[in-house]
Design goal:
Helix content is about 50%, strand content about 15%. With about 280 residues, the protein is α/β, with parallel strands linked by helices. A hairpin with a 5-residue loop joins strand 2 and strand 3 (about 80-85). The longest helix is centred in the last third of the chain and has 25 residues, at about 210-235. The radius of gyration is 19 Å and the shape is globular.
Length: about 280
């Protein structure tokens, strides 16, 4: 269990797909071969079978296409503000869609604000792909990577501790003792996977539906944050009243975003109401 809740908490999630550029380079495929065909060959090299035609590939050969985070800030007066951060912000802008921009923007923001990171399988997967692909893209993120000389002198994202809370690392065990985020969320009255799951992301990207990937990513970030709230409640960081207030803040955030035009979140809110038994 984590020992504390920082004044700034970012519950984040990343989405990635096989990188055709990596496939062409590693498997010496011709440049004129289309992205779809390259990715099919990457899956074949990755051990594709009839039962598993799209196996998970090493993160180093995948490109990050979206990052979403629910950010919580507790101000000096005790008030709390929530925001939903999504990258790329403008999917119609090629410069913002570029992997180097998505990763670089996120790592720079973490380095500047120094939040407590929260994820699900983020120690083994999300953070690792961000670092690996940052190296591949030649990104500099000095503030994020800077480590204090002593643990009490600053935040260290490369050491075990409260700076990075991985829900799976805390609640998971061996084999059948490890829940998926979908299982953990759904059984806790929180929306898990809705109309899209991780296996569909590559197809959506190939079909040019980055908007659906970003929407899916936002829902996963909300789910991660709501599960973290339950874990923080379990650990005594929020009492019953405080936990209810935190949930209401999330509801207000989602309702506000729906009013601003993020219609996909209405489906999320409906699912949350149904799972939680809210009339």
């Amino acid at each position: 269990m984590f020992k504390s809740v920082f004044d700034k908490v970012w519950a984040f999630d990343c989405e990635w797909v096989p990188d055709p550029a990596a496939g062409r380079a590693l498997h010496r495929l011709p440049a004129e071969l289309g992205d779809r065909e390259v990715i099919e060959q990457m899956w074949q090299h990755g051990g594709a079978s009839v039962e598993d035609p799209m196996p998970f590939l090493k993160t180093i050969v995948c490109r990050v296409v979206s990052i979403a985070a629910v950010t919580r800030q507790r101000r000096r007066d005790g008030s709390v503000q929530l925001h939903l951060l999504s990258l790329p912000r403008d999917i119609a802008d090629p410069a913002q869609v570029a992997e180097s921009h998505v990763i670089g923007t996120f790592l720079d923001a973490i380095g500047e604000h120094k939040p407590q990171l929260v994820g699900f399988n983020s120690i083994a997967a999300d953070l690792k792909i961000l670092l690996q692909r940052a190296v591949v893209n030649g990104i500099s993120a000095a503030d994020f990577c800077r480590r204090p000389d002593k643990p009490w002198e600053g935040i260290d994202y490369f050491a075990r501790g409260d700076a990075h809370v991985d829900i799976k690392d805390i609640l998971g065990g061996w084999g059948k003792a490890t829940p998926s985020l979908h299982e953990l969320a759904t059984l806790s009255g929180i929306p898990g996977k809705l109309d899209v799951d991780g296996n569909a992301v590559a197809g959506l990207w190939l079909d040019g539906q980055l908007d659906r990937i970003v929407a899916y990513n936002e829902c996963d970030a909300l789910t991660t944050y709501l599960v973290w709230l339950r874990l923080a409640h379990l650990g005594g960081h929020f009492d019953d009243r405080g936990y209810a207030e935190e949930q209401q803040r999330v509801r207000a955030l989602v309702e506000g975003l729906i009013a601003q035009g993020r219609a996909h979140l209405a489906t999320y809110l409906t699912a949350w109401d149904q799972l939680s038994g809210r009339p």
